[in-house]
């Protein structure tokens, strides 16, 4: 057998040995407050009429034509002084009429899954620019409409804050 042939047989043997010794591990469980888990959570939304909506992959197309979306704007931190992290996120409900009702939701891990513990209506057609958690409060940086702004283009910058009381077990 030539040197090239011996090298090929040796390489094949090493690959077979490595395949036999590879340890199969189950996929890691998703974190309860990860963006993916929050994209499958159930939320109670609405400033006047409360709806309970469960998202799939971060959205839901409701039967009445509304599109509910979880925005990729999130923050994590301890809001309830219990040494556990909560998550804050933004959910937008778009209507066929062109409205886009925006809400801040606060979620806590309870029983290994995300459970909403608070929400606050932020406005119609607002543009959320940032979300932070500090000093046990959520701060939302956003733009809202001035009386002269067209529906597409809110221009008034403001920060809205939310404090959450102790929640969960």
Concise overview:
This protein has helices spanning 3-21, 35-38; strands at residues 42-45, 51-54, 59-61, 67-77, 86-94, 100-110, 113-124, 127-134, 137-144, 156-163. It has 169 residues and is mainly β. A five-stranded antiparallel sheet has the order 3-4-5-6-7.
Name some characteristics of this structure.
5-stranded antiparallel sheet, 3-stranded antiparallel sheet, single chain, 169 residues, mainly beta
Description:
The structure is a single chain. This protein has two helices and ten strands, in the order ααββββββββββ. The chain is mainly beta and 169 residues long. It has one domain. Strands 3-4-5-6-7 form a five-stranded antiparallel beta sheet. A hairpin with a 2-residue loop joins strand 6 and strand 7 (113-124). 21% of the residues are buried. The model is unreliable at 6-24 (pLDDT under 50).
- Please indicate the count of domains: 1
Number of E-state strands: 10
Q: What fraction strand?
A: over 45%
The strand line-up of the biggest sheet is 3-4-5-6-7
- Give the class from helix and strand content and strand pairing: mainly beta
Number of helices: 2
Write the layout of secondary structure elements.
Layout lengths: L2 H19 L13 H4 L3 E4 L5 E4 L4 E3 L5 E11 L8 E9 L5 E11 L2 E12 L2 E8 L2 E8 L11 E8 L6
Antiparallel strand pairs: 1-2, 3-4, 4-5, 5-6, 6-7, 8-9, 9-10
């Amino acid at each position: 057998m030539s040197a090239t042939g011996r090298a090929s047989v040796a390489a094949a043997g090493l690959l077979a040995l490595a395949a036999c010794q590879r340890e199969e591990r189950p996929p890691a469980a998703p974190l309860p407050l990860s963006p993916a888990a929050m994209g499958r959570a159930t939320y109670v939304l609405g400033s006047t009429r409360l709806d309970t909506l469960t998202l799939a992959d971060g959205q839901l197309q409701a039967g009445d034509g509304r599109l509910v979306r979880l925005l990729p704007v999130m923050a994590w931190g301890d809001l309830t002084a219990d040494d556990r992290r909560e998550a804050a996120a933004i959910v937008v409900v778009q209507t066929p009429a062109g409205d886009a009702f925006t809400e801040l939701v606060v979620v806590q891990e309870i029983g290994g899954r995300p459970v909403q513990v608070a929400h606050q209506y932020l406005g119609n057609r607002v543009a959320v620019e940032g979300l932070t958690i500090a000093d046990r409060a959520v701060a939302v940086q956003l733009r809202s409409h001035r009386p002269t702004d067209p529906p597409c283009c809110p221009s008034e910058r403001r920060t809205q804050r939310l404090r959450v009381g102790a929640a969960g077990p």
